[in-house]
Amino acid sequence: MLHIPAYYEYCCRVNVVAGHEALEKIPQILERVHASKPMIVTDRGVAGAGLVDLVTRIIGDKVDIGGIEDDVPPDSSLDAVRRIAEAYRNNACDALIAVGGGSVLDTAKGANIMVSEETDDLMAFSGAGALTHRLKPLIAIPTTAGTGSETTLVAVIKDHERHQKMPFVSYFLLPDAAILDPRMTLTLPPAITAATAMDALTHAMEAYTCLAKNPLSDASAVTAIELIAKHLMPVMKQPENRDGRLALAMAATLAGMAFSNAMVGMVHNIGHAVGAVCGVPHGTCMAILLPYGLEYNLHRNGDLTAELLLPLEGADVYARTPSEKRAGRVITRVRELNQSLYDITHGGHARCLKEVRNRDGNAAVPKDQLPDIIKAAKCDPAIFLNPEDLDDEDYLMVLEHAWDGTPLDRSRIKTG
Amino acid sequence: MHLPNFMEFECPVKTHYGDWALNHIPFELKALGAAKPLLIADEAASLEKRLKPVLEAFRDTDMTLGVVEDIPTSDMQNSLHQLSAIYRDKDCDAIIAVGQGSFIDLTKWLNLTLSTGEESLASFSEGRLIPRALKPLAVIPSAAADGFELSGYLRIQETTLASAHLMPQLLFLDPRTSGRPDDTTMVETALNALTNGVETFFCAAANPMKAVYARTATMLATEALCQLAGRGARDERLAITVAHAAALGGCALGCQGLSTIHHLAHAIASTGKATPTQAQSVLLSYMLERRSLETEMNVDLFLSLAGGNDRFARTPEHQRSAAAIYFLRNLINQLFAITDGKIGRTLQDIGLTREELPAIAEAAGRRDTECEASSLEAILVHAWEGRPVDGTT
Amino acid sequence: MTGIDMELIYREVTPGRSILKRTYLRINLWFMGRAIQAASRVDDQVRREFQGLPENFTFALGVMPNGPYMVVRKEDRDRARYAGGRIEAQSVDLTLAFKHLEAGILTFTFRENTPVATARDRLVVDGEVAYACSVVRVLDIVQVYLLPKPIARLAVKRYPRWPLAKKWINRTRIYWRAVIGY
């Protein structure tokens, strides 16, 4: 169904190259952007998985690789940005290739600002509108499916000295190309495959149901949901399924296109807070909180949630489900998906906050930290475009249910 | 949906649609580093006074614009020379174009010339790369469009260049500048949009990224055509819906979107008997029908785009493709009536003879990569007779 | 244009300013700034929001590229001070700016509330984005005080259920303080 707001904007300037041999196109892409000596930016985890070696093996004889920087921390840092920018200059590189997830890409974007603006003061370019011309070529090769960060015009760099997070917002930060090659996610562990796919599903669903939706972001979101619904469980059962991996990669990028234009809502708002306070991976937060966000907002956007039943479960289920029950069915289906992922990962994919374990095997989200999570959520602007407001009481209610794994008591939702 | 083994998609266009869209132009130009745009308009835009709201959008910005309007496309070279000279002499740093069709081709040519210093298109047709960074270009189309305005195609006489870098960076669709064309013109524009949307969604080179624009263009175009055909109440925003559909259809087309229908339409138009729009409108349902025989193409999805999710879902799976084709043919038949036959139901309606069909198929076959000439001829015969395409085609 | 001589005519246009609309916005922003100052002395929730902001935190709301703006600065522990309408000479930590004058008019004539203006990309939020939530909550509370319910309901996402006495007494106090500037 077409929903056309009174005004909208939509932009995705990234050249998406996707396929079973997409990596092989990198030399051609570099030639098109008049670059010949790229610096590869990655992290130890990606390098350790052999993915950087795969890239260099494929492109190494056609491209003069200017260096490999694999020291990007989990939270992109100003130090790492400076180091990479210096290495870039010293090695006379002329492009950047980011192989990894969100923080690798953010770091590469930050380094790109420094080398393009020929500056040591990254802070001077923070915020929106500080960049006014193209940066050096940047190619993004995501290694999860995924954050969609290859489509976002935002980078967040942490200044550990000043304990500050610096946001950078500009269309010039978009990568010139995003390479989606299933070989990059073939060896992704099951729990991460599940979490990152649910991250993508959340991007798509929030983009479709929140206030900034538009027809193009809707089209991206619906296609992403179709692909995830069709391919996630087959890939979980058969991880070496390349077609499925490619489909999930495309879905993640499409979901990224959707949310980078239509933004997100309370699932990300609360999810960011849970991640910041308790260190829970983003995808895990998204998977757990998605049904709660949809449930909480039902009185505002239930009709939109209802429409998602078609891409999520197909025409037969959609046709058989009475229109007033479709939104509820979507929420149930998301919960069922979480259950299936929990089963197939033998508990590795958490269904609720109390099930999330940290590296030591302890509970990652103690119940007594819920007030801290609420405090953090109240500072996260992702709530702006959620259709309904949340106050402290509302946050606590949602978090308590998400912690327990019980559906919301909708009679407690305040409607103003 | 069908996923290709390999795909590449790029769309540099930033879409701004809706109320007060024009008022975002100064902000967007500033974000691209531009401070003195050259505002150019074709004859139709000048006649319909479509520049006034654009100029008003710059109030309170203290920006100065250069303005040249009433630009003819009868002598493109002359217009190009003059505009290039003006742009350079007056230190402009961006182009805002208000118009449609060949005027936008002129605009793209102007941008290429200014950005590369090369006026001749020959070197580019011979393989010279079109650079990424052309001058900032904003296009403000109307509801009278040929559907190529936002594409990556630049067509000057016999030369056609294709590159994503030729696509305008900025698109502004505002009800104040969508114009007030007559119904037949809007029907033609919407059909151009529908062709571009459907072809890019259902052709062999389809991919999910392109489908974002193709899907939306198809839905908008169908919505507009249904209103124009008299199915349901007419929306006051009909003209902007048509302009919206055409623009997004162009985005879907990109620089790799020409398909069988376009090649056939081009060959038919070369006979001088019909316009590309008339040809495409007839051929659309026959091509779709042919593709429905190849199950990978998911032609049944057209039913959800055009008829809505509920209709799609309650139609049994094996009936959906046929229902989609029926929907489209019925719509074309209604448009035949309201345009007084200008939009034909068959190739015979638009003035072709059966004897002309083989030559048309051969001419199209030289450009088409999807179908051979013999298949094309078979499609043309069905479209001439008005007989549904079956498994023998 | 037809004929042999197809000389194109170039002209330059510098569109002027919309005096009435700018004046309308200037007045509204001026009053809003003073109302925020007043609300920080009257409403507990507003005070709590300012308490959570850093010392001397300064935010501005206005219209690009040439204003008008309102600037508000935190002072003491939990109060706000209206710091005038010019951003040039001040250090501003957070700016919420409408991309053009008409966008500001749409919001201040209640056709597009702040969430809708954000959704429709009319607003740019620049600076210390983490504190934007507090600022928006303050703006919402102040709008509920300043505007009659039917209009305030358009301006905010969820109209709060306050005791009538609180609303009317505080409303009177805020209006009075905003007018006299204290």
Strand order of the largest sheet of chain B: 1-8-5-4-2-3
N-to-C SSE string of chain B, H for helix and E for strand: EHEHHEHEHHEEEEHHHHHHHHHH
Task: Label the CATH architecture of the largest domain in chain B.
Answer: Up-down Bundle
- The CATH class of chain C: Alpha Beta
Quick gist of this model?
Chain A has 416 residues and is of the alpha/beta class. Helix content of chain A is 49%, strand content 12%.
What does this structure look like?
The complex is a heterotrimer of chains A (416), B (393) and C (182). Chain A contains 16 helices and nine strands. Chain A has 416 residues and is an alpha/beta fold. Chain B has 393 residues and is an alpha/beta fold. Chain B has two domains: 152 residues, Rossmann fold (3-Layer(aba) Sandwich); 203 residues, Dehydroquinate synthase-like - alpha domain (Dehydroquinate synthase-like, alpha domain). A six-stranded parallel sheet of chain B has the order 1-8-5-4-2-3, sandwiched between helices. In chain B, strands 6-7 form a two-stranded antiparallel sheet. In chain B, helix 8 packs antiparallel against helix 9. Chain C has one domain: Nonspecific Lipid-transfer Protein, Chain A, CATH 3.30.1050. In chain C, 47% of the residues lie in helices and 17% in strands. Chain C is globular and about 75 Å long. The N and C termini of chain C lie far apart (64 Å). The relative contact order of chain C is 0.16. The model of chain C has no long low-confidence stretch (mean pLDDT 92).
Question: Which key terms come to mind for this protein?
Answer:
heterotrimer, A: alpha/beta, Rossmann fold, Dehydroquinate synthase-like, alpha domain, three-stranded mixed sheet, 16 helices, B: 393 residues, alpha/beta, 2 domains, six-stranded parallel sheet, two-stranded antiparallel sheet, 49% helix
Question: What secondary-structure arrangement, pairings included, does this model have?
Answer:
The complex is a heterotrimer of chains A (416), B (393) and C (182).
Chain A: E1 7-19, H1 26-32, E2 38-41, H2 44-48, H3 51-59, E3 67-69, H4 78-90, E4 95-100, H5 102-117, E5 127-128, E6 138-142, E7 154-159, E8 164-169, E9 177-180, H6 190-209, H7 215-237, H8 242-262, H9 266-278, H10 282-296, H11 298-307, H12 309-313, H13 315-320, H14 326-344, H15 370-377, H16 392-404
Parallel strand pairs in A: 1-9, 2-3, 2-4, 4-6, 5-8, 6-9
Antiparallel strand pairs in A: 7-8
Helix pairs in contact in A: 4-5, 6-7, 6-8, 6-10, 7-8, 9-10, 9-15, 10-14, 11-14, 15-16
Chain B: E1 6-18, H1 25-31, E2 37-42, H2 43-47, H3 51-56, E3 65-71, H4 76-89, E4 94-98, H5 102-116, H6 122-125, E5 137-140, E6 153-156, E7 159-162, E8 170-173, H7 183-202, H8 208-228, H9 238-253, H10 260-269, H11 276-292, H12 301-307, H13 309-314, H14 320-338, H15 357-367, H16 373-385
Parallel strand pairs in B: 1-8, 2-3, 2-4, 4-5, 5-8
Antiparallel strand pairs in B: 6-7
Chain C: E1 10-13, H1 19-42, H2 44-51, E2 58-63, E3 69-75, E4 79-82, E5 94-98, H3 101-108, H4 114-119, E6 123-127, H5 132-146, H6 149-155, H7 164-180
